[in-house]
Amino acid sequence: MGYTHFSITERSKLELLLKMRWSTRAIAKELGRHHASIAREIKRGRFNQEYVARSAQQGDHQRRAYSVPVGKYNLESAKD
């Protein structure tokens, strides 16, 4: 079973369901995810004590950009 990142659609649904005060387990069943994945996403995506889907999506893109390895050969080492 592979891992897939949350999409903006899933994050938007998550935001709405949280505002409706659904539990993480109920949200997980609705989205077809594990309840721990929902809890982690809520923890990562909180801004000012509130989950915001758009901000969570931007944060995800930033984390992915920083996780890309530089590689063995890059432009800086080519100058030497």
From TrEMBL:
Domain Transposase IS30-like HTH: 3-45
Superkingdom of this protein's organism: Bacteria
InterPro entries: IS30-like_HTH (IPR025246), Transposase-Integrase (IPR051917)
Pfam family, one: HTH_38
Listed GO MF terms: transposase activity
GO CC terms of this entry: cytosol
GO BP annotations, alphabetical order: transposition
Family annotation (PANTHER family): TRANSPOSASE, TRANSPOSASE INSI FOR INSERTION SEQUENCE ELEMENT IS30A-RELATED
Name of the featured protein: Transposase IS30-like HTH domain-containing protein
